[in-house]
Amino acid sequence: MSATSTPNPCPSAPRFEVLARGCVSRPVLEHITGRWGALTLLGLREGPLRFSALRRRVDGIAEKALAQTLRALERDGFVHRDPGEGYPSRVEYRLTELGASTTALLYALADHVESRMPDVLAAQAAYDRTHPPRP
Amino acid sequence: MSATSTPNPCPSAPRFEVLARGCVSRPVLEHITGRWGALTLLGLREGPLRFSALRRRVDGIAEKALAQTLRALERDGFVHRDPGEGYPSRVEYRLTELGASTTALLYALADHVESRMPDVLAAQAAYDRTHPPRP
DNA sequence: CAGTATCCAAAAAGATACTG
DNA sequence: CAGTATCTTTTTGGATACTG
Questions:
Q1: Which intervals hold domain HTH hxlR-type (chains A, B) (predicted)?
Q2: Residues contacting residue A48 through CB under 8 Å, at least 6 positions apart
Q3: What's the mean pLDDT when you consider all of chain A?
């Protein structure tokens, strides 16, 4: 750290503003909501998994992307990486307490979306009916 | 439409699996959690806004990105677009009921992250201390 | 097994200009 | 004002190969 006199960002205070660019929590929120972040956390929700198992679980993710995502989530303290000793290597990933509490909220969100899919599909159909495919 | 005999994806049933590629809810979840989706929804949380006001609120977003994001969210039924008549144009965007309920969950998530930022910053510092910057 | 390294293709972000 | 069009630059994604 050292006295960085950043005019600084979002007071974690009453009104919160992740909306501000430069807010320190914004990149963190992006890690957990981003393309693979959310799915990776949800993939670990039911218990620890090893790299390949997790990769199979998060359908469609590339090794590279999974590695990157896990690194970011580990750095932010959402995921704990436990490298077992021995060979061949067995590394387990598990949610930290912070990761678990966060994932619970993420799950609530995903579950809500899932339950309201009928409305979403209806909205999409209506939209497509009234909007030109692409002139 | 038309009888697509998709072997199809994620039963909205008991165990849910957004994790599956091809799951219809996955792209929707991505729209609301994606790079700008979340911030745009949060930007509308306190009330309807017009395009430029929203753009100012979601700090750093480009016109193009905002237009795209709003289109996706409108199509999914999270946002309602209300084009006022007259000139110059005044278009208002507001959350639908579905958008509002979803955004409430998103807010809970963002708020949780915000409140735990001290832990996140500590984790990041610890990580950076023990991991080589880049050899 | 658990990754890293590479290379290429595809997509997204940015900046600028222009229209109803 | 509310966008679209266009072009350029960066980031991603995907496939393949290789190492401890």
A1: 23-121
A2: A82, A92, A93, A94
A3: 86
A85, A102, B107 from A119: Cα distances, Å: 50, 26, 21
User: Chain A: nearest CA to B62, how far in angstroms?
Assistant: 13
Residue A2: its pLDDT value, please?
38
- Count of other CB atoms within 10 angstroms of residue B127: 15
Quote the tokens at residue A1. 């750290």
pLDDT beneath 50, residues of chain B: 1-8, 11-15, 135
pLDDT one-digit tens code per residue, A49-89: 999 999 999 988 999 999 999 999 999 999 999 999 888 89
Query: H/E element holding B75?
Result: helix B63-75
CA distances from B92 to A40, B51, B95 (A): 35, 7, 10
Cα B33 off chain centre by: 4
Cβ atoms of B97 and B78 within 8 Å: the answer is no
The two tokens of residue A74 are: 């580990």
What CA–CA distance (Å, rounded) separates B65 from A67?
28
Other Cβ atoms within 10 Å of B91 Cβ, number: 13
Partner-chain residue, chosen from B26, B59, B114, that has the shortest CB–CB distance to A16: B114
> If DSSP codes are grouped into helix, strand and coil, which group holds residue B12?
coil
Q: Which of A16, A19, A39 sits opposite B59 (nearest CB)?
A: A19
